[in-house]
Amino acid sequence: MEKNRVNLRICGISYTIVTEDDVEYVEELGELIDKEMKSINNASPTLSTTQCAVLVALDQADACKKATASADNLRAQIKDYLEDSARARMEVDVARREIERLNKEISNLRNRLANN
Prior knowledge:
The chain is an alpha+beta fold. It has helices spanning 23-43, 49-115; strands at 4-10, 13-19.
């Protein structure tokens, strides 16, 4: 895949990123990090750029971990729903066969009654 060079400016510092990701996507990430770092810096102006970066990294790691846990939970729920659906389909098949059997039995009983 083609490598893209993306120039980002985060907290006044320029970074050149080489990536296979879409340029616009990487620029959005850079803007997100820059916005978060500026927000932290505005709230606590005594923090260094490194300290701001660490806090942003912790926040992003937290968000990532929570998103992963949420995705895992959704996967487990979907698996349960699929298993419930398969079980319900099997029960429907069993019920249909029983209905067919009972309809044949009714038909046979009607024929016997009609012949008597």
